[in-house]
Amino acid sequence: MAQTFAFEAAMTDTDTPTTWLARRGPALAWLLVGLLALVLCLPLRYTSHAELSFEMATQPAPAVVRGNIQLLSSRELAFEVARALGPVDTKALAAQSTPLLTSLWRRPDGDEAALMNRAARTLAEALAVSAQQNGRALDIAVSLPDAARARRVANAYAGALLTLDASVREGADAPRDPAPTLRLASPASSARMPDLPSTGALVLLAIAAGLAAATTLHLRRRPARLTGAVVHNALPQECPSDRRVSWLRSTAGGSLAPDAAVDRLMDTVGSAEKSDLVILTSGDLPDESAACSLMLARRLADSEDQVVFVALDGEASILSRLTLDPRAPGMAELLFGVASFSECIHRDVASRAHLIPPGRDNRSGASVVNAERLTLILQALRQTYSRVIVAAPGLAGTPGAERLAALSPLLIALHEDTTGAVEAYDGLAAKGFARVVMLPLNFADDAREADTAPETDAALALPVPSLMTPVQQPASHAA
Question: What Gene Ontology cellular component terms go with this record (predicted)?
Fold first, then answer.
């Protein structure tokens, strides 16, 4: 049997994604993380600490501590520190207050007052004063890009506050509650290691690094483009055919009874694409195939409009009794061109379907299948009816079956469960039928004996009574 396989591309372990983003994306992501780290961490800053303590055994008053902290953070003391540092440090501190981009096009102001203002602003931003030891000491922290300058500024702040405190004490006239005396507990020293980035900068760097890692993993795990060559000796080859075959069986895996078979065919025909022409055939069950095809047409007519049943197999006994008049025109007259469609199409009294009986000259086999006008008749019926159900003789090995296959019908092949279904399908596939449904039938013994029962005048007995309703009224011709 013909099977359809898909091509597979062989790739080596060295194949990588070929898109530019997949190749350069991880490097660009980590480059951006590095640039962000440089912006957040540069310039490096060094912090120097100078400590002042109060010369008293008890804890000083909170107002005294707050007052000294405010003095250290004041702008006036920053000017005193700037004047005490000297012109070199003052110019360096003033240069730090000017943005980098602004300094590229704007000349620095040479006025001494403006220079002192910028230096004082830099000192105020670099200074951090905090109380230590429950207010018994004051920590003066100065953070600058130059470690030596940070040490000098911290010591200058401590010296300026001590000088101010001493001058206030000398000029005071016997104060009632003298403030505790300040002394230099620990002078500032140059820091050897730069300060760590702030908490906000570290969090931002962690988020950026996480996004870069996720981007790298996503791009690396993308499936590589299939660019390898197909190894024809190792892979299955695609069969250049659109043939499809379905094998219908019961839930237990066995054959189906006629009623169950028709139920399965209703689902198959209703879901199949382009199933306006359905041909039922059988090489070993001609009567059962004809009965199932008639029952299928009647079941379809209950739910659909414009259903016609065409009896091609004149040797099937059930098809010769579709109408009360055995001489009614049918397919034989259409094939020979001696009758029109309006004369050969009859109404079914058991359903809303239309019928075309075998005709006066019951023909079967190659004499019907190989007729030149058969394909034209079926094409005309397809253009008029939504469903054309054809009860055909055995088509495997029958001359002329190729022309029926050219109409692309849905072919339903009924067979006995004991016969070789694969060989039967091969015979149909050799004729060119692309869509085939293989259906095994299992008739009871009494149903088979009903075919040999004599006919009575009261009612026309059928080979399989469960598959059709007895005809009791003469059929009228379709207009």
Answer: plasma membrane
* CB proximity list for 292: less than 8 A, separation 6 or greater: 258, 261, 262, 265, 280, 414, 441, 467
The count of other CB atoms within 10 Å of the CB of residue 357 is 28
DSSP letters spanning 410-460: EEEEEEETTS-HHHHHHHHHHTT--EEEEEEE---HHHHHGGGSPP-SSS-
Largest distance between two CA atoms of the chain: 150
Report d(CA 398, CA 394) in Å as an integer: 7
Q: Where are the domains of the chain?
A: 45-194, 244-467
- pLDDT confidence bin for 3, thresholds 50/70/90: very low
Per-residue tokens: 180: 């505790």
DSSP 8-class letter at 71: H
What H or E segment, with its residue span, contains residue 333?
helix 331-336
CB-CB contact of 347 with 306 (8 Å):
no
| Beta bridge mates, 81 | none
Hey, what CATH topology would domain 45-194 get? Bacterial polysaccharide co-polymerase-like (3.30.1890)
CB 67 within 8 A of CB 168: no
Q: Say whether pTM exceeds 0.70.
A: no
To the question of domain 244-467 being in CATH 3.40.50.300, the answer is: yes
Cβ neighbours for 293, distance < 8 A, ≥ 6 positions apart: 280, 309, 389, 390, 391
